[in-house]
């Protein structure tokens, strides 16, 4: 691409030549990675983003939320000193948490560093809303750009808000408002018992907020093992978090100061704030994907193992529906880059996708749950170890709730799924993820030497339970 790069007062970069090699629509984690690598490879690349380069993760998702979780965990750990190492007290203070989020995680929600990184790599950035108007053709800010090789869609997802009467008209929070808040409410109702809702519920509770969690499914973390659901519900109740599962929400009202949430059966909950954490959804309606043969009402952009969504069309990240995780986006990005550059290399497989809910205890899982394995017709064996009964769990004592569960295909002797819940559960999961991804036979895993006393040694206990 030729022409001198210029930037107008709106931050929109402009050049005379609007024919490039690749157009990346959506510069979240995956889109930014694809655009940057292609630019480094010498291609003429335009990256388009209406919001912040980097997407949800660095500004309102994984990074700031884990800062909040780290702070809340410190409070809990301090309270565990009593009876273990003397006496201690802590007075929670939200101010340093809010300040750290602004300064270290998001730079006050400014993406200039990310934009500069892409431009310095040789890319061209356009701030605006893109519309696909035809094969290899995109309109943005009143101009039409054409891509010789094609278009990459990386537009991510948005918060899914259920159609509860009165909710849309109320000043509810999503994860964004929860992360941005500088003051804590006295009380909070969290609608949704998935990972995001539970992580934030526990954070705010540990900082002194009165918290209730309402979930329409019969259990929290309904996509995970029932043992994980029971574990986290018990922990929440012990910490004073009110949990309601298997209930329908009939209406949400707001009087200007407080919320009232009406539940089926006549019960109601009152709170100063309501956090909606009912998942994420793909929004293709305004992207113009119909111009390239895609369904604008689809729940995801279907891609093959090379991230191809059509001729001269690729998609990466949350928009592909393979899991709303940063690690899925960063996994898919180099696969798409190689395909665009016509290079050989590994293609995508999702048999060993790890996922972690960063509550305390952490709940990590990989591959299939027991129910999913049975639904696939596998002959299933399971093994279970309780963390408090392991040597390290017994030593850990306070805050040692957890379990390790393995799901084995008896016909192949392979672990097809596993859960590691407990202190450092997400880290213990690493060994199980290797076992699933590497298709390591159970007989081989049972011959391993597991360091003593470690949390991951509980894997040996779970494998031993297979034979009992």
Q: Which properties best describe this structure?
A:
disordered N terminus; Enolase-like, domain 1; single chain; 8-stranded mixed sheet; 25% strand; alpha/beta; globular; FAD/NAD(P)-binding domain; 468 residues
Q: Based on the structure given, which CATH architecture of the largest domain is correct?
A: 3-Layer(bba) Sandwich
What's the tally of helices? 14
Number of DSSP strand runs: 24
Q: Report, as a whole number of angstroms, the end-to-end distance.
A: 66 Å
Return the average pLDDT rounded to an integer: 94
What is the percentage of strand-forming residues?
25-35%
Sheet having the most strands: 8 strands, mixed
Task: Give me the CATH fold name of the largest domain.
Answer: FAD/NAD(P)-binding domain
Helix percentage range: 25-40%
The CATH class label of the largest domain is Alpha Beta
How many structural units, i.e. domains? 3
- Uncertain stretches of 5 or more adjacent residues: 1-13
Rg over CA atoms: 24 Å
Look at the structure and name the CATH superfamily of the largest domain: FAD/NAD(P)-binding domain
The helix/strand class is: alpha/beta
Q: Rough shape?
A: globular
